[in-house]
Amino acid sequence: MDSSILSKAYQQPATNILADVCALAAKMDNVIDLSVGDPNFTTPAPIIDAAFAKAKAGMTHYTAAEGLPELRQAICDFYQDKYQLHFASQQVLITVGAEHALFVALAALLDPGDEVIIPEPCFSPYIEQVKLAGGTPVIVDGKPEEGFKINAQEIAKKVTPQTKAIIINTPNNPSGNVMTAEEAQALAKLAVEKDLLILSDEIYSDYVMPGQTFTPIAKFAPDNTVIISGMSKSFAMTGWRIGYLVGPDWLVTAANDVNDAVTFSAPTLSQVGALYGLQHHDELVAPIVQAFQERLDYLQKELPQIDWLAVSPVQGSIYVFADIRKTGLGSVEFADQLLKKAGILVVPGLAFGKCGEGFVRIAATQPLAALKEAVAKMKQLTW
Predict the structure, then answer these.
(1) Which residues, 6+ apart, have CB-to-CB distance to 20 below 8 Å?
(2) Radius of gyration over alpha carbons of the chain, in Å?
(3) Residue 163 pairs with which residues in a beta bridge?
(4) Are 93 and 139 in contact (CB under 8 A)?
(5) Terminal CA-CA length for the chain
(6) How many helices (H) and strands (E) does the chain have?
(7) pLDDT confidence bin for 281, thresholds 50/70/90
(8) Helix, strand and coil percent figures for the chain, each rounded to 5
(9) Rounded CA gap, 59 and 228, in Å?
């Protein structure tokens, strides 16, 4: 027996640049890893303690498939308190990370031939998940000169009778763009008029730079929005694998039916940690957000002093999407040379779509001292 028994899609899969970089990062020592979006912080101790205490007390069994009722309610309370958005707990499904939330929503939504519009640059698993769910991804190329903003007019040009949904991510990975309220309202208007769902990845919603505001698109189209989010970034809980989706109850019910065939329920102790985190959101998240703002401020100040780099203002997220076109190199070749010459690992912009070519994503996920070392090394390079 050999690999010919595999699905045709996986006998000769397309190159996955982001996955390859993540695999490389996991194997390498003595490099400055500015590639993976995994905050270097340990999960806040009170979250760990809360989960540990429940484990010691015997809370090591399944929860309800939809998740702990108190966690689902806490998510509703969070959106009510922070954004004045009202959701009922039956509109919430707890998942094994935000990626899982997106996949079960897509699997519940799509039939073969259905189209999903995805603005690029984007987190590459969006495209693969649409395909896995039987749909067809339709790409809208972002424009560097516009800061890769999500443009409702450009999205409207791609809508066809087969379009069912639009996937957006704000604050955006990798570009750092944050949709304005006016931009969100324009996209919401399009979704309502065309009877489309907006799958809104809001995993970086806590990470907005001073002067910027994150506005959930659900404010303008609550019946047409599915919020995808989780605890990985805000609470430094990447390894806990805990996320959620919030949307129309009929979609949540269907997504839970999909989930029953995939994982049944999210890890119990991760749910306990998430509950504690949400109940103490502001005090736990603020120090992490402040640290990332300091790091991004530093990178935005220092990187433009390198004559072969250009950096647009970062509005949000935990990344800088740096313009390396002056080097004359493609993003994959540049990233390879940067690793060999300086021991710095970044992600080629091509990993986030064709319009990301000529850029690299620099993650501010290392301490400021490591960022300073990386910048010093880059200042010594010529191309």
Answers:
(1) none
(2) 21
(3) 115
(4) no
(5) 48
(6) 13, 13
(7) very high
(8) 50, 15, 35
(9) 27
Is 148:169 a contact under the CB 8 Å cutoff?
A: no
CA distance 359 to 85: 36
Question: Contact, 177 vs 315, CB < 8 A?
Answer: yes
Structure tokens at 184: 């969100």
Average pLDDT of the chain is 95
Contact in structure between 210 and 175 (CB atoms under 8 Å): no
pLDDT tens-digit series, residues 95-151: 999 999 999 999 999 999 999 999 999 999 999 999 999 999 999 999 999 999 999
Q: How many residues are recorded in the chain?
A: 383
Distance CA 244, CA 345 (A): 30
Dist. CA 43–CA 280, nearest whole Å: 13
Structure tokens, 114: 């259905």
- Cis peptide preceding 222, ω within 30 of 0: no
| Structure token digits, residue 359 | 């850029």
pLDDT tens-digit series, residues 209-242: 999 999 999 999 999 999 999 999 999 999 999 9
Q: Which two tokens stand for residue 149?
A: 């903003």
Pairing of strands 225-230, 163-169: unpaired
Are the CB atoms for 246 and 227 separated by under 8 Å? Answer: yes
Give one DSSP letter per residue of 293-320, joined into a string: HHHHHHHHHHGGGSTT-EEPPP-BSSEE
Residue type, 264: F
Tell me how far apart the alpha carbons of residues 206 and 171 are, in angstroms, rounded to a whole number: 9
